Amino acid sequence: MTLLNAFDLTYPIVQAPMAGATTPELIAAVSNFGGLGSLGAGMTAPDVLNSQINTIKSLTDRPFMTNLMVLSEHESNTFDTSIPNWLSQYYEKNNIEVALPERPALSFAEQLQVLYDNPVPVASFTFGIISAEQVQRLQSLGTRVIGTANHPLEAKAWAEIGADAVCVQGVEAGGHRGGWLPQSANDPLGLLTLISQTRACTDIPLIAAGGIMNGQAIKAVQTAGAELAQIGTAFLTTDKCGINDIYKKALLDASQDKRSAETRLTRLFSGKQARGLLNDYLRDFGQFESAHELPPYPQLNAMTKFMRTHASKGSDAEHQSLWAGQGVALVRQESTIELLERLVRDL
Length: 347
What we know:
41% helix; 14% strand; 11 strands; 8-stranded parallel β-sheet; 3-stranded antiparallel β-sheet
């Protein structure tokens, strides 16, 4: 059975589950259109997640996906590094008050329990891998399970524990890298290379992500061996996306030659590799990018939150994480439906 049939989709389009950017209205619009709308819930408290799932279910009777970030209890509970001196100095210079939370991230186990108690049609996972028992429990509730991979070995691992599909995320993709093996960070693979190498080691159905901005690109990844295309950056500048106006303007400026469309893989915002538009923060502190200089994810993510919040309130794009893929020069200011119609016109 193809993923199109298994997920009951009309079109081979998955709206990427971007944490902090996806709204129930965006997800419902995509799903009602015939694609797979996706909730990026990795940074969402369990009670809020449950409420958002209920809201989505009230807006659409079509399949949708919920995405969680796989973290161990130790990772989500522990601050065992200090705020870097250069970041502390930035806070002091800009009179930004810093009060770290008790823990750097939410409990993955508590978030996952929401999906057991309030099942969703599709659940996807990033930053790590769950157990075969967890996969089976979700599937017993009627939930299809999707893993995320930046390397063929990660896709193979998801196949071996019984996942229904894997989203292979090329180096072109915006936002955080979903992989967890050292190989995925040491030598990031482009999407077409990743698809072909993954096809050579496993026959699990593939969803392709990274730099896909139009119907021609969807057809290209399908020809390469993926069944569905996951699209993120193109949705960020549409009307139902939840990012702030300054972030949205920066993306549109990049598409109109009003600012550089150069993107960069960086660990400076969160401690984990992620791709975003180059801005002053990445220029000013790029010397600290090397692994031994930075606290790991999610600790650094919790530490830079105060800078990012201050920048957002101050209409400052230069100290926000402007996550975007390498296709950012092709974004448009349009409605979510206009984007979807444009994508399928060329299929």
